[in-house]
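Assemble and predict.
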Amino acid sequence: MGKIVNIQPVTRIEGHAKVAIHLDDAGNVADTRLHIQTLRGFEKFVEGRPVEEMPRIVCHICGICPWSHHLASSKAGDACFGVTPPPAAVKLRRLMQMIAYVGDKLLHFYFLAAPDFVIGPDADYAVRNVIGIVNAAPNIAKQVVHYRQLTAQILENFAGRAIHPTFSIPGGVSKPMTEAERVEMLAHALELLDFSMFTIKFAKENVFAKYIDAIKTLGVIKVGHLGLVTDDGALDFYDGKLRLMQPDGSHEDFADDEYLDHIGEHVEPWSYQKFPYAKKWGDGPAMDLDNPVGVYRTNCLARINVCDKMATPLAQAELEEFRAEFGRPTHLTLLYHYARLIELVQCAEQTVELLEDPEITSSDVRKKIEPRSGRGVGCVEAPRGTLIHDYQSDDEGLITQANLIVGTTHNNAAMNLSVKQAATELIKDGTYDQAILNKVEMAIRAYDP
Amino acid sequence: MEKEFEPKIVAFCCNWCSYLAADSAGMARNQYPSNVHIIRCMCSGMVHPNFVIDALTKGLADGVMVCGCHPGDCHYQDGNKRAESRSEAIFLMLEDFGLEQERFRLEWISASEGQKFAGVSGEMTQTLKELGPNFYKS
Amino acid sequence: MPVKVVEEWLNSCSGCEISILNLGDTLLDLLPELNFVHIPVLIDHKYYGQTGESDVIEIPEADIGIVSGGVRNEEHKHVLEETRKKTKILIALGSCAAHGGIPAQANMYTNKDIFEKLFRGSPSTDPASDPNHPNVPQWLDSCLALDEVVEVDVTIPGCPPHPDWIAEALTALLEGKTSWSLPERSVCDTCPVIREKKSAAGPVRRCFENLEFNPEEGLDKMRCINEQGFLCLGPVTLAGCAGKEGVPRCIQARTPCRGCFGPIRKGARPMVDMMGAMSSVGLDPKTVVDRRAIMNRYIGGHGNLRPLPARPARK
């Protein structure tokens, strides 16, 4: 009988997870599992709630990316009631989303991921954290804290809430933007763009170049990818068609309300989180490291792989540089961090673009809605991956059925595979220590679960 | 053999009217069921709906009565009116907690109406026997 | 000497932790005073030793314990009890910890119904039995607030709690105080809108259209939301969502309050008090759609929400 090595809790991620590494008699990895330990039951307890209340209920699924749920839910609500929000409302929704994502990406890179790279993966846990970074690089830390807070401040000043917003609502948004607000926000947006450019430059020079060996090995798996793209193939966070890409790069596009034809969810007895898989890729899912079936990833690396191009010029330049080095699609798991920062640039650029659009201050921001029975699917790209909200409502506009597939859930099978790959590579003959176990966790952290 | 279900009723009785009525029922030998447990309070208007809801949702009682003075007779002018408007909240909360409306009763009983007190108590006991035990008791 | 701090999250969304980060510069000022010895969101301290070698959960001793999230499963309970044992002052951070929060909406349903829906009633899921494994903690019968399980010393409610209050409470504790609480005021007490004590009669309006207001003007020129005929839980909700200054956050977004800070006084039932507030402006509580869920949106713990009896209530 071998033994089981547990990593509990998995840290510097959002949520409760445990890794169990099963070693055989020789001390080599026989199997690994990433157990997701919490479950809240949103899909059940939203039944009976008014559709127009949903965006402000389901945002509570995640306190780091409440805006994604808020907007996916608003879009599903729009579709349930059969309304198209006015153009300015869509722009305001997109604007809020982009600002929130800038904050989120800064948070993940500097607070959660950077300690492994800047302090070092082998360092003692007591210093391998954001407080360690504050002590090691106080100037950068100060700016990070400042700019991340600034994103929250901008959201709060305009939309009332940065965390768990109420601003977007089926039919549009709750209030228009004034010219004075636009001017003030634009000045901040330009600062955020500067800091985003600084961040990607800093990371390229100090992180990705330095850890290229780890990037080429740690957690690498060859699976598919899923993400939203616009009609002309550009990466988009708010709207578009879903693109599901095979590991070899071939892909199929479909509308978000056809997701049931393409995506199934499998349940394993050892995890509360389900395992989505591509239905058309064979008899999946199979989490076999050598021959995975039906497994795909979402989140930034997947988006960077599925899109033909970025939507903004500076981000496009970054993508070209990235692809020149790593190709398309790339399967290197730690490149999630790199892809995240390319997206950071697009989010910052789009924030500026939206604020320079004169239509954004239009006072027409809400269509009146009439309750009716219907079905609506709302899909956005959350920082953590493709987010699908699927609602059905009755004549009174109350929810009768809700189905949610959230970003990190799509990555469940892939994360399990990456953990298995990392553990198998790193643990030999029963030898392991905290540094090695931390590297296994790094394979999870890349996904930003 | 199964014992017959004996409901427990909490009755909040106003000091100036229904409490005396309960007393006079006793003195006049108007029997009322032992299921009724009286809590004396200074006015029906001071019975916060939370007392009623807590008694029911914490499984302490099968039914609750609030008894006050007839309209116009309140010792504090409009306490009973207040009790009446609060009873609307109580009925809505019963609905929200899935409890039968019959588990709560608001009654106006003056000091001289011992017989009425006995009658109401008997009726409520009978109704609750038919309804069965409060769901929250289990 | 910095004080030792343990931070844990249970049935939570991490919004409270983000709110701590939203302290921004204040956080950097506070950091030298705080020695975080265990905080899974930021620091890799593990429960069972750094290489999982121990059988016993080990949370370090600390002066202050901060816990967000409600108690949903056996593991949450275990971690909470352990944190309580190891810390001198325990802070319940956020409305989930204080009142159950949004996840306690689940208390309207039985666990059986919820699992049935999630694992056998979802259109995208291949039906399967419920997850059942030593590494997936069993659910408790309902989602609880922290004080239903252990003694809590300080409560900082809010969804999320405002950074101002987190800073104020921590500063008070750093100064050696052992308690802290928000002043008992209602959201309305801090809301600048115009009130005329009457509303257009008729059923309570749902948010099918926006409030009436002029976006160029401040909130002090907008009519009270309840008086516009919509349901706003401001009258029965503890104030403080916008911090020490500033107007209530949802009102700032021109949307009604849904009670995220919980009741003004411990043990109050907003439903009861809201009835009074509604009738004083002429709104009929009977016409609120989905009343039970909406009135208890953030406070489903403490037995406020439960599955209704199987038999239908008599008319």
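Chains B and A do not touch (no CB pair under 8 Å).
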